[in-house]
Write a structure and sequence with these properties.
Strand content: 15-25%
CATH architecture of the largest domain: 2-Layer Sandwich
Structural class: alpha+beta
Largest sheet: 4 strands, mixed
Order of helices and strands: HEEEEEEEEEEEHEHEHE
CATH topology of the largest domain: 60s Ribosomal Protein L30, Chain: A
Strand order of the largest sheet: 11-14-12-13
Distance between the termini: 136 Å
Radius of gyration: 45 Å
Shape: rod-shaped
Number of helices: 4
């Protein structure tokens, strides 16, 4: 009888002990961690066991809910001033072309190499537009081709004025220096004396126009050769038009 009583007492003690909850953070079930807003993970109350235990926008890492790193596949999924890079939202590379390297442009927040153009202004510094493409510009060469004149004319045509304007701009931009001799010529028609005077007037006309555009007069000499130095020996209008000229001798 006594033995039965001892067994019953031991069973009662075990029942009482088993009914007492373990002290926090130890646990046997999620219910014991619920008051803290946690779950039971391997006998310990933890913030989470899986992503399902975390609120939206968070993931379970090391039993802690941490913010998810934003992911994206297109720029539209990122906020203003951001772009999608390698699946993550990142600050935009640029806001304007001036924030990109030479030869690049700002295209929707990214610095992109310019591949097409219509004018030189579409290209970056040190580049120029050639055949619709931006290419690295080489040293600029001024156009020293002869200036042509009409029959018995020493006044500059509009085409000749345009040519000389481009030449003057080029000389001033590139810093080309040194003496230049303006050599006047005429075709074979007329007397030698008249053609000599005409060739001198043509050279003087070119010099006057260039000096008006800012080229120093001291850097320009003039000389007339009349009809004595033709570029073509033929006696037709095509040949005569080539011979009525002012050449630049540098």
């Amino acid at each position: 009888m006594r033995r039965i009583s001892m067994v019953a007492g031991l069973a009662l003690a075990m029942t009482v002990l088993s009914g007492c909850p373990k002290p926090y953070p130890s646990c046997d079930s999620d219910e014991q961690c619920k008051e803290k807003g946690e779950v039971c993970v391997q006998g310990q109350c933890q913030e989470c066991a899986t992503d399902a235990n975390c609120k939206e926008g968070f993931s379970c890492q090391g039993n802690k809910c941490v913010p998810k790193e934003p992911t994206c596949s297109t720029d539209t999924e990122c906020g203003e001033g951001q772009i999608c890079e390698a699946g993550k939202c990142a600050p935009a590379q640029c806001k304007g072309d001036d924030q990109c390297p030479a030869g690049s442009k700002c295209d929707r927040g990214r610095c992109a190499v310019r591949d097409t153009c219509t004018t030189n202004t579409d290209c970056g510094e040190g580049q120029e537009c050639q055949a619709g493409k931006c290419v690295t510009a080489g040293p600029k060469e001024c156009n020293w081709e002869p200036v042509q004149f009409g029959f018995n004319e020493f006044q500059l045509s509009s085409e000749a004025q345009s040519r000389l304007t481009e030449l003057a701009d080029c000389v001033k931009t590139t810093g080309a220096s040194g003496k230049v001799t303006l050599e006047g010529h005429a075709d074979e028609r007329g007397t030698e004396e008249y053609n000599l005077q005409l060739s001198n007037r043509r050279a003087a006309s070119v010099k006057r126009y260039l000096t008006d555009l800012g080229i120093p007069a001291r850097s320009l000499d003039t000389v007339g050769y009349g009809e004595t130095r033709p570029v073509s020996q033929a006696s037709d209008e095509e040949a005569w038009s080539q011979n009525r000229r002012v050449e630049f001798r540098r």
